[in-house]
Amino acid sequence: MKTILTIWKKELKDNIRDRRTLMAMILMPLVLMPALLIGMDKLVNYQRERSKERTARVAVDKDASASALIDFLKSQKKIEVIGVEGGPEKGIRDGKADIGIIVPADFQDRIKSGAPARITLVQDSTKMESQESLAKVNLAVSAFSGRIIEGRLNSSGVDNRLLTPITMATKDISTAEERGGFGLGFFLPFFVIIWAIVGGQYIAIDVSAGEKERKTLEALLLTPAKRLEIVLGKFFAVSTTAVVSVVVSLTSLYVALKVFGLGPMTGALESGQAQGKALAAAGADAAFSIEPLAILVMLGVGLLLVLMFSAILLSIAIFAKSFKEAQNYIGPAYLVAIMPAVVMNAMFGFKPTDWFYAIPIVNAMLLFKEALMGSYVVSHILITAVTLIVFAIIAILVAGRIYSQEKVLFR
Amino acid sequence: MPMLVAEGLTKKFNDVLAVDRVGFEADAGEIFGLLGPNGAGKTTTIRLIATVLSPTEGTAWVCGFDIVEESQEVRRNIGVLTTDIGAYDRLTGRENLRYFGELYGIYGDRLEKRVKEIGELLEILDFIDRPAGGYSTGMKQKLAIARSVIHDPSVIIFDEPTSGLDVLASQTVLGFMKKAKEMGKLVVLSTHQMSDAERLCDRAAIIHKGKILTVDTIANLKEATGSAHLEDAFLELVGAEPVKVMR
């Protein structure tokens, strides 16, 4: 026991004096979290403002007869109609316009006679400006269409309310906390997982493969310390660093959220997501509060996650004979760890069965989400805890075994 | 029983026989040489005795403790200075020594006393509180010696202790070996430097291709081969033509 303590203290002291460990453990999580928040906020706002402010340049054939539609478009704010020689397609290709509109010659006549008239919108779907302009022109054309309907109905003496027998309003019963939790649940588990790995990665390599490289390992193995004691001492040093890193990242995230609000984060998710509106609403409330029980569950799961990652990192790094080799192994391992979580995160409304909580990392991710939304299922928590602990123990025993293998030590 | 006894010590790496039925005895108050060219099996023999490797066959006893059955006790009684003299660069010399002291089960005042004692003996107190990363090779070697004997072991094994050292640094190491001998320790010197061995060793085992060729006093080795120097005796024993040996 004393030996484990000795090794733990020494490895921490040794690594705290290393600027690289300090960077990975404290500085990166401290700075990166707020930077990411502010950065995303600025980016999202910039994009939103830019697309709102930008005038859609609409190309029409120069020779085309000016119809009422074109005149209507011209009267709209943020829409500029440009007459182009050679047709709208050429206008877009030449970069003179973002979008084109082809109005047939008989357009006006068909409208007058009450026959359906067809227009063609020309766009380049690979250009963002084109997409944005399309939306603006679409809206304008719809509005114009509405006007025509109104005129036709009026002239035949029909109340145009007849056309909309049902009007809809939506009401969201989720609380601000739930929406906040939903938004937080999207990115917070990632941060915990990432820092649980990154925070311990450097020291894990330093205390194992690094020791081989610096030729101090043999002297250590010559002491009466048992192999498992050596591994445990190093393991606790790695875990300690990773825990500090997770706590620092979460604290700085918490502070950043308090200062900048949840809006930007959820805003970033808005584009294209079905949940966009709910998230945006949560963002608008900027209200988030985390129950103490949720914090407790997350800390507990985070700790178990750290223990498992530390053990796995250490056994990988012990196997390697140099710093470089260890990094080569850990890179892919990192991807393997994070991929299932990424996939899981992308599946909205996914209802996991119990055995999903037996998949390490995925289970932590699911539990974080649950806790943030105020749901605590004992069986989920238990299965997750047991799974993570079992994996951690296996990894530590493997590391211990590797430290007893002559081939790995002296190759 | 002598302090160090090896009996039929054998180590195979896959199919390569690195150490082949090595047997010898050495006792307190002597400097025992383990002499042979590079790759003869000296380091492997030492690692077997130091319980870092386990023998394929045979065994050895250190202070009466079996290296296979009682490896913990063996490690407590043995100090090994390996060829590679790594230190924890970000720790000071004193912190390096404290760490190893604690790993050998020495704590508190006893440890501080021992660090001071060994620091004086090896003349490292001047720089002991500086980070080891800034040490010269000689300073590092002294620290490495201090580290390997921090627990005051009865058997001290030096594996190529002067390789890569200049004359002054070498002197410190060799001087320390003499002192250790005077203190009643068993010192084992593993080296290919015949001049060092000739000056220091009382007896020596000549090891070649994993096998012990002979064990005798230095004087007897020279006499038996009719050589004026240990180096010639060595060449005679391993059956090499002197001119063909490149070192």
3D architecture notes:
The complex is a heterodimer of chains A (411) and B (247). Chain A has helices at 2-16, 19-53, 68-75, 88-93, 107-113, 128-155, 176-207, 209-213, 217-222, 227-260, 263-270, 276-285, 292-319, 323-346, 362-372, 378-403, 406-409; strands at residues 56-61, 79-84, 99-102, 120-123. With 411 residues, chain A is mostly helical. Chain A has a 4-stranded mixed β-sheet. In chain A, strand 1, helix 3 and strand 2 (79-84) form a beta-alpha-beta unit. The relative contact order of chain A is 0.12. Chain B is α/β, with parallel strands linked by helices and 247 residues long. Helix content of chain B is 37%, strand content 25%. In chain B, strand 4 and strand 5 form a beta hairpin. The radius of gyration of chain B is 18 Å and the shape is globular. Classes of the chains: A mainly alpha (411), B alpha/beta (247). Chains A and B meet through helix 1 and helix 9 of A and helix 2, helix 3 and helix 5 of B.
Summarize the structure.
The complex is a heterodimer of chains A (411) and B (247). Chain A has 411 residues and is mainly α. Chain A has helices at 2-16, 19-53, 68-75, 88-93, 107-113, 128-155, 176-207, 209-213, 217-222, 227-260, 263-270, 276-285, 292-319, 323-346, 362-372, 378-403, 406-409; strands at 56-61, 79-84, 99-102, 120-123.
Give a count of the beta strands of chain B, DSSP E runs of length 2 or more. 10
Class computed from helices, strands and strand pairing of chain B: alpha/beta
Compute the CA-based radius of gyration of chain B.
18 Å
Count the beta strands of chain A.
Answer: 4
Mean pLDDT of chain A: 82
> What is the H/E string of chain A?
HHEHEHEHEHHHHHHHHHHHH
Strand content of chain A: under 5%
- Anisotropy-based shape of chain A: elongated
Quaternary status of these chains?
heterodimer
State the major sheet of chain B: 6 strands, mixed
The greatest interface here is: A-B, 26 and 30 residues
Briefly note the structural class of the backbone of chain A: mainly alpha
Average of pLDDT of chain B: 91
Give the strand line-up of the largest sheet of chain B.
6-7-8-3-9-10
Number of helices of chain A: 17
Tell me about the biggest sheet of chain A? 4 strands, mixed
- How many discrete domains of chain A? 2
The fraction of residues in strands of chain B falls at 25-35%
Helix amount of chain B, in percent? 25-40%
